[in-house]
Amino acid sequence: MEQIEREVKEKARRAREAARHLAYLSTEVKDRALLAMADSLVRNQERILEANEIDVRAGREKGLSRALIDRLLLTPERIADMAEGLRAVASLPDPVGEVESMWLRPNGLQVGRMRVPLGVVGMIYEARPNVTVDAAGLCLKAGNAVVLRGGSEAINSNRAIVAVIAAAAEGAGIPAGAIELIEHTDRAAVNVMLKLNGLLDVLIPRGGAGLIRTVVENATVPVIETGVGNCHVYVDEGADLEMARSIVINAKCQRPGVCNAMETLLVHQQVAEELLPGLLEDLKAAGVEVRGCAKTRELVPWVVPATEEDWATEYLDLILAVRVVESMEEAMEHIYRYGTRHSEAIVTRDYARARRFLREVDAAAVYVNASTRFTDGYQYGFGAEIGISTQKLHARGPMGLKELTTYKYIVFGEGQIRS
What reaction does this catalyse (predicted)? Predict the structure, then answer.
């Protein structure tokens, strides 16, 4: 334990020292480093894929779920996407040093607010090696050093990735220590990070409910909480049912193991009889296990009975809960009771009802006639994301560059003194 604590603290100290210099590095140097990191990922993809193969094989032997294996797996296409994400971040405006506003006080002082880096960001996450790249790239562009602690399932992948991108960044002028990886997979390393006040400025946990709860309940370092996604699609009365079918299948099946996938389908009773039999057969053919309320089972008898637990579950798998509701009010009440304030959607032709859903549903992202799968930093034009925050302070939704900065006040005077 003492050795782990020493090593974690030493890496955090290296990151703290690097952050001092990163804070005032030019945009040109940071962008050059990001492009070099992207090129190095592609150039060294065989090395990364070999390491990832070891992790995936071990994960299958441990009996990891299909969803976790999918999150863990790297392919040439996924590495290309990771590299493209870094290039996209390089193309974005640099928030550091941006003066958001200036105002003149009666005494002649000019007061302004300037964007500055957070400092050192600690990332604690599970079996998603793409997070390693996204976090490093976004933190670097926002002038932050980052201390990464990924899950044990992806340790070989993360070692290979960090070795590749850290060397490329340093070669482009980024100070050593800006991208640090905690290689200890023991939970003790996480426990040390949670208490590193003065070395880490903020912790961002990204993973399942258990990981997030552990960090939030035990950290003394400030935490930005990324939330689990018990997401809903509500099909309103009078909805375009072909559109609804397309959105539901995409939201559930396109990539079920991620937090913005739909977990519960709510259908207005006026369209349930026309929509559900065919739609649920399509979902069944796609490998989805459907669990439904009594009204759903009257329409589609093969559906498994849903329990109270089903309404509150983030499956991260090809499982879907379905409920027929009598009104939009009942749908919104269900979302209020069981949702995790991540992503919620309505399919409707009624403008006024769409506006009401947008106004009354409390979530980081609320959609009208679109899949919940779009809750993603890249899809929103942020280049990438470091996580999706479901809290309200200090960031909410997909967190991009600006969410990785804070601000300071700058004041210009001409010799004023306070009387």
Answer: L-glutamate 5-semialdehyde + phosphate + NADP(+) = L-glutamyl 5-phosphate + NADPH + H(+)
Cα 59 from Cα 71, distance rounded (Å): 11
SS3 state of residue 371: coil
* Structure-token pair, residue 170: 């340093």
Dihedrals phi, psi of 173, to nearest 5 degrees: 110, 5
Q: Do 196 and 202 contact (CB within 8 A), yes or no?
A: no
Beta bridge partners of 205: 124
Q: What single-letter amino acid sits at 333? A: E
CA–centroid distance for 50 within its chain: 26
**pTM for the model:** 0.89
β partners of residue 322: 265, 292
Residue 183: strand, helix, or coil: coil
Given the structure tokens 């106004």, which residue do they identify? 359
What are the φ/ψ torsions at residue 233 (nearest 5 degrees)?
-120, 125
pLDDT tens per residue, the chain (419 residues)?
789 999 999 999 999 999 999 999 999 999 999 999 999 999 999 999 999 999 999 999 999 988 789 889 999 999 999 999 999 999 999 999 999 999 999 999 999 999 999 999 999 998 889 999 999 999 999 999 999 999 999 999 999 999 999 999 999 999 999 999 999 998 999 999 999 999 999 999 998 888 999 999 999 999 998 878 999 999 999 999 999 999 999 999 999 988 999 999 999 999 999 999 999 999 999 999 999 999 999 999 999 999 999 999 999 999 999 999 999 999 999 999 999 999 999 999 999 999 999 999 999 999 999 999 999 988 998 878 898 999 888 899 999 999 999 999 999 999 999 99
183 token code pair = 């290689």
